[in-house]
Amino acid sequence: MRVGDLSASEITQRLASGRFRLRTGPFTYAVRTNIAPLPAVIPQLYRDFPLAEEDALVDFPVNLVQPSGVRGWLLREVDFLLGGHFHFEPFQRRLALPYFEWGLNWCISQHAHQYLLLHAASLERHGRGLLIAGHSGAGKSTLAAALTLAGWRLLSDEFAMVDAAGELAALARPISLKNESIELVRARANGNYLGPASHSPRKGQIAHLQPPRESVERVGERAQPGWLVMLHYQPGSKLALAPLSKAQTMMHVAFHSFNYGLLGSDGFSRLVQLIDQSVCLRLTYSDLDEAVGLFNGDDFKRP
Amino acid sequence: MSVPQTPHWRVRKQAQLRWQTWGDESVVFSTLTGDTHYLDLLASTGLRLLERQSCQITELVEHLAAQLEIDADSQLQRYAEQLVENFAALGLIEACDPCV
Questions:
Q1: What is the pLDDT of residues A167-189, one digit of tens each?
Q2: pLDDT tens-digit readout, A4-52
Q3: Which chain B residue lies closest to A244 (C-alpha atoms)?
Q4: A7 and A99 co-located in one domain
Q5: A139 in the Ramachandran plot: left (φ > 0), alpha (ψ -120 to 50) or beta?
Q6: Residues A265, B20: C-beta atoms closer than 8 Å
Q7: Are residues A63 and A167 in the same domain?
Q8: Which of A74, A87, A181, B33 sits in a 20 to 30 Å window from A263, CA-based?
């Protein structure tokens, strides 16, 4: 059964009672919440995702709840709990959606150490994976969204997940977009749902793009690494693609990994294998259409 | 531990180094520190020598000069001293008894 098979009232009931068991790739979340706008938005962002049976094993039981008393009613705060425990500060109710998405990512980054977790968007075409890395603000999610809408399969927006065999696993969760990128992607969304924008004091406007159905349906298919692109968004720049040193790329990616240090020698082996199999490139761009054209051209047909 | 005035150096005894080389560049992982380091050709040539055997800085200079076909001049001597200092600060090598 998929999320979209349930009626709105059934989804609301399941969310309110904690019986909403969402499968995203290898992980199952039991979600409990009645905080608006989640019961209205989750069914749209996650419409094509499978639901686990109610007696299925759950990786992450998460609650987003309004605390009692002043914090809940006056300050309009919301708590995010994993397994009934607080792990971080409460947030404002108007940020429920971005914090829900951020919280689901946090569960993986803190616990899913069977994977080497790299800070990169990951996509696939013809069985080969494309990792898009870069500093915050480089445009990783924007480009990942545009490529996803232009025929690439989304593996994950936030993480590249490298399994023990060195293959890239998929989550296909919604893509988080910020500020100007929201309208850029909205113009290309082509029927894919783009959720409501929330304003965060730290990050500005945040909205989430529903992943294409094909990405969700093929979430169990892994990909061989093919390319690792360090992305640089530079306003006014010409499109420029250049080879990068594998050793220096590895150091950058390791430094920005969520758990490379934790995995020790195994993390080193996996990352060496990934870098060795990947064509490492640096892309500077300012025009999203030009960049999409590049990735859909001859340079990225095969590594 | 007292260290002789012209110490010998070697990769730390408890450490195993795991290497990957692409062209003239290498990355090396130390099982002892859990850290990964980027090394250019000079640095990797030096560390590989200290992994195989203990040696003094003068021997390191001779080895680098022979392997890379460069002059064993004062510039290389200063580089080797700096290299040893950096490797020691990173916990990759240690001073040791000459006979080890």
A1: 999 999 999 999 999 999 999 99
A2: 999 999 999 999 999 999 999 999 999 999 898 999 999 999 999 999 9
A3: B22
A4: yes
A5: left
A6: no
A7: no
A8: A87
